[in-house]
Write a structure and sequence with these properties.
Layout: E1 24-26, H1 31-39, E2 45-46, H2 63-82, E3 92-102, E4 105-107, H3 113-123, E5 127-138, E6 143-155, H4 160-169, E7 188-192, H5 195-199, H6 203-216, E8 218-219
Parallel strand pairs: 1-2, 1-3
Antiparallel strand pairs: 3-4, 3-5, 5-6, 6-7, 6-8
Helix pairs in contact: 3-4
Length: 221
């Protein structure tokens, strides 16, 4: 396991089981989500969702609705492509989308180093939220469940030298808000909520969703 994944949360991640065992498909190219799934002991395959132009926040859309909608779209896309597969038609797709939010401003993955620097300066000395939408989708039956999980964090005041060092490390790349909690930065602390949610997948809630999926998933309208 990579050195970045030595936080306590990585050593005791919960695992949930479906009532009837089925293949699990992770609809994500995120290595962090794959690491979380593997650390919890899940056996799974990875199928990347299609890149969609609609996968952007809409003006005025609440953060919880954004992450739930995008997770739903990812799961639906992968499930539709798997329905013709004899081997994976019984699979359950797991999709997620993570955003940061401070006040009413949504923070996705930085597009470049300047964008990451802007985000870190905005978050410096403030509390903010990390939200992850999670969607589970039954490929064969079309049942799904989607919801969001919120974690509140606080960032210490960080000076430009610290921000520059972080930018130079390239650890901002591909991470909502321009940082990864798993990187062990001493200028971040969790105020409330799930640590794994900040990494990109709320493993505690995922275990509960898998355990109850056959009971509370709903069919698409």
């Amino acid at each position: 396991m990579a050195d970045d994944f030595q936080l306590p949360l990585m050593r005791s991640l919960p695992k949930g089981e479906l009532l009837s065992p089925r293949p699990l498909i992770l609809a994500s190219g995120s290595p962090r989500r794959a690491e979380l799934m593997a650390a919890a002991g899940y056996q799974f395959s990875v199928v990347l969702p299609a890149d969609g132009a609609e996968d952007q926040p809409k003006p005025g859309e609440p953060a919880t609705e954004v992450v739930e909608r995008l997770a739903y779209q990812k799961a639906a896309d992968v499930a539709a492509r798997l329905r013709g597969s004899m081997l994976l038609s019984r699979a359950v797709v797991i999709a997620a989308d993570t955003l940061g939010a401070v006040d009413d401003l949504l923070l996705g993955k930085p597009v470049d180093a300047d964008d990451a620097r802007r985000m870190l300066r905005l978050l410096s000395g403030r509390r903010h939220q990390v939200l992850t939408g999670v969607c589970l989708w039954d490929v064969a039956g079309g049942g799904f469940v989607v919801e969001s999980v919120v974690t509140e964090l606080e960032m210490k005041v960080i000076d430009d030298a610290t921000i520059h060092q972080h930018i130079e490390s390239l650890r901002w790349q591909g991470k909502a808000g321009g940082f990864g909690f798993q990187d062990g930065n001493d200028w971040l602390r969790i105020v409330s909520g799930s640590e794994s949610n900040v990494v990109g997948l709320p493993m505690e809630r995922l275990a509960e969703l898998l355990a109850g999926f056959d009971k509370f998933s709903r069919l698409i309208d």
